[in-house]
Amino acid sequence: xxxxxxxxxxxxxxxxxxxxxxxxxxxxxxxxxxxxxxxxxxxxxxxxxxxxxxxxxxxxxxxxxxxxxxxxxxxxxxxxxxxxxxxxxxxxxxxxxxxxxxxxxxxxxxxxxxxxxxxxxxxxxxxxxxxxxxxxxxxxxxxxxxxxxxxxxxxxxxxxxxxxxxxxxxxxxxxxxxxxxxxxxxxxxxxxxxxxxxxxxxxxxxxxxxxxxxxxxxxxxxxxxxxxxxxxxxxxxxxxxxxxxxxxxxxxxxxxxxxxxxxxxxxxxxxxxxxxxxxxxxxxxxxxxxxxxxxxxxxxxxxxxxxxxxxxxxxxxxxxxxxxxxxxxxxxxxxxxxxxxxxxxxxxxxxxxxxxxxxxxxxxxxxxxxxxxxxxxxxxxxxxxxxxxxxxxxxxxxxxxxxxxxxxxxxxxxxxxxxxxxxxxxxxxxxxxxxxxxxxxxxxxxxxxxxxxxxxxxxxxxxxxxxxxxxxxxxxxxxxxxxxxxxxxxxxxxxxxxxxxxxxxxxxxxxxxxxxxxxxxxxxxxxxxxxxxxxxxxxxxxxxxxxxxxxxxxxxxxxxxxxxxxxxxxxxxxxxxxxxxxxxxxxx
Amino acid sequence: xxxxxxxxxxxxxxxxxxxxxxxxxxxxxxxxxxxxxxxxxxxxxxxxxxxxxxxxxxxxxxxxxxxxxxxxxxxxxxxxxxxxxxxxxxxxxxxxxxxxxxxxxxxxxxxxxxxxxxxxxxxxxxxxxxxxxxxxxxxxxxxxxxxxxxxxxxxxxxxxxxxxxxxxxxxxxxxxxxxxxxxxxxxxxxxxxxxxxxxxxxxxxxxxxxxxxxxxxxxxxxxxxxxxxxxxxxxxxxxxxxxxxxxx
Lengths: 588, 248
Known about the structure:
The complex is a heterodimer.
Chain A: E1 3-4, E2 8-13, H1 17-28, E3 33-36, H2 44-47, H3 56-61, E4 74-77, E5 85-86, H4 102-105, H5 120-128, H6 146-160, E6 168-169, E7 172-173, H7 197-208, E8 214-215, E9 225-226, E10 232-233, H8 255-258, H9 260-263, E11 269-273, E12 276-282, E13 289-295, E14 301-311, H10 315-325, E15 342-345, E16 348-355, E17 371-374, E18 393-398, H11 418-428, E19 432-439, E20 448-456, E21 462-467, H12 472-491, E22 496-500, E23 517-519, E24 543-545, H13 560-578
Chain B: H1 9-19, E1 29-31, H2 58-71, H3 86-94, H4 125-143, H5 154-166, H6 176-192, H7 204-209
């Protein structure tokens, strides 16, 4: 019943960060690209201009820029014994919608993962022995190395104009940068952002304790920057409306501020917005994608044939699209067989609140990613032998989201309302500060994604079901990281501190991060991965799947830097290998 | 990849035009050749004006005013919840998309789960307020000789709200605790949101905590550590004094 359109070379599903990068690279290579995006076009002037972008209620509390759960949501349960129930409103993460995707409303913390993160299982096994890892932990190597990815990290940072200070250039340690980072081929494109009071105090305390604090790498730019595509990004004004907001200043790296002005002018590119892809179509062999079927705003179905299909939606939507299209073998947690839905993971965050009597931190002077961090307790940067867990995270004073609906911090024991509550927020809004840890989340046999048997979306198709809970390894790690950042915080001299490690069950009502990962992971073996090292489907060789979907487990960093690097890596593989000889790029 | 077939936009449009039965607008939107920018395409918020209740009945509105005034009592730090417009804010929110749960996932089956699975009510926020306020009214009239919530003494109001929060008060079929949480959340939103939405009148809440509001450039202030930012707050619609006064 779908009406068939003329074929194109490439169809891109979802026009966010990775869809924009791949569309730009492949149109440069001469291919005709059609991008199909279910949300609307997003434009700075129309959707978040400086005249009203600074609206906490609309953008943060009422979720103006995110997908509407009525369109598609997820069901969640902690284990297979529990009934999964739908997220009726967003809570622990905020699925994007529209052109630019999560690139519109991210905080722009732009990290690289550690070299050991990419060879996690072999690295940890070599250092601690296989018995050190929990029996049900299913962490894997990625099938690529940090060195493979370094040029592509560099390309993403040049695209974004990332502001930061290098800690390691070609093996030479650089003062003031992160001494634990993998060697980078050159410094960041722009210098670090300015630092407010809290991060400066944190860095001072951390230095006194022998740590090496460094500025968090930021996609909110310290100065104007023109990227290699010729697109100019403005300097950040530290307005404080970053995460969950679009940037009215054109100073947060996003597809809008880095790629789209070039991409849409190309004659061999076309975007169709408000069109939702419902299926990737396969030929009779099931080994080749023939294109996609999508629904337009009036409910009509269209078939867009294409020689190459790029699945570039948000991580969770990518996995669901594979399941709904019957691509790859769904994961079975009983047998451990199957790959679609396998190795879902998340992020383990925690915080320490600190209260002073007399200080003034001006928490509203903020960007998405200013702050001073330490990396001594990330990944395998420290000896885990005595601690009984693996993984870690960065920690620091990151000044963001200091707005009053969200950001009123009060000492424990304060009533939640009434005169005493008012007095406490009036006293503590400017003089309290929150330190944060950003920890890894490793993958487990009983954590996975599949289709929900009960709940359906607006088209009557099954929702995706998330089976996830924190494991003891991650909760122990969170306690450890929180204790470490609390020690630094104590040294900053507050009157009172409150530790908030991650404890108990996964709570899908409380915002943590939108760093959902995995479910169709990359790797070296089709039995344990859905994608090869070039993000190419093992089952359908003319399908590539981008995003954090490919992460075998999550590291102790924000994922977008690695997501962007992988997109450039896959684009190069398509341009330099696949286009010359279409077919599997890795033989099994 | 010589086998890849090319297609131009012109040929695509020409061929799809023949296929289309519905007008081309039903095709979603096509972006090609230029950014689809249009002047005045922005969607600014609409200023809430005081006036009659948009959702509440007068009785409900009176109860909400009394509730928000106990949650945020007026004192030397700021005017209270009623005078800062929290009740008007909630009323206007309930009469718009938020109150009708527009955009939320409202498909059955509805069943209770663990607290970490989030609210599973089939009722919209507007319906939840209506039911809870009716139960509260019934409760107060039974306990306080026929008086509605707004007419009982402040210390009794506080005791009742505390009971809703901590579990000592039952409100018939409604979860008193869930209603308390919804009310407190919306009251806090109204107190701290931009005044354009009807609460935070005269930016009283922002002045109280020292939040400068909808300003958009602090480049000169990032490195001025431990200093109080000197300028008064401003909202999306400016602030009193910015707008030319019309003579009465």
